Amino acid sequence: MQAALPWLALLFAPLAWSAAISAPPAAPANAPRTLVLVRHGHYLPDPAADERLGPGLSDLGVAQARLAGGRLAGEGAFDRVLASPLKRARETASVIVDDLGARAASVEPDLAECTPSTRRVKVNDSVPAPERAECERQLDRLYGRYFVPAEGAPRRELLVCHGNVIRYLITRALGVDRQAWLEMSVGHTSLTTIHIAADGSMQLIAAGDVGHLPPHLRTGSSADAERSLAVP
Questions:
Q1: Tens of pLDDT along 1-31?
Q2: CA–CA separation, 7 and 133 (whole Å)
Q3: Hey, which CATH number is domain 29-217, 3.30.70.270, 3.40.50.1240, 3.40.720.10, 3.30.160.390?
Q4: What is the helix (H) or strand (E) element at residue 192, kind and residue range?
Q5: Which of 28, 84, 105, 179 has a CA-to-CA distance to 122 between 20 and 30 Å?
């Protein structure tokens, strides 16, 4: 009986080898993801602008984007840069990417500006309910796609978009009332940083940070004066 054991091993060896080959590979382990959300720079109304894409940056907005890019370049590389399709966001991303020495930003349609429902009745009345509901579906899709742990290795990603988008995503990350988004104010080219741990838990590191801008170049938040000056 003992002499037959080697033959049995040879007989079943191909079956074991086949099972090992057909076994699905193990899923990559979760890893942390850091998202930095940048609001676009200052812009001015332009009657000639494309109705869907809006106007581009003012000179002041370009200067703000350049300062944001310089700051971000000193804080480490990004694995990916995404931008809203609106012109002011794409131009902001282009300036920042130039400072980062990174590849061009990819356009993410769901980063486009829109207005979700808010606690403020007057704002809700100014935006049709179906439009607000569609905005919320858009931003919830965005949240489900990017506000998740990375796979395999830590990732750091830059999202260049809009104030409404950023504020709504903050409420989702914090797990608070989503209609509270308008109770926050984030200025032009401000940085909002959210860390997503490997277990999916989230931490708001900074919201609306404009430390890279001198006071006379700060615009877009409720505490900032309206400015239209040209900056060389």
A1: 455 555 555 555 555 555 555 667 777 899 9
A2: 69
A3: 3.40.50.1240
A4: strand 191-196
A5: 84
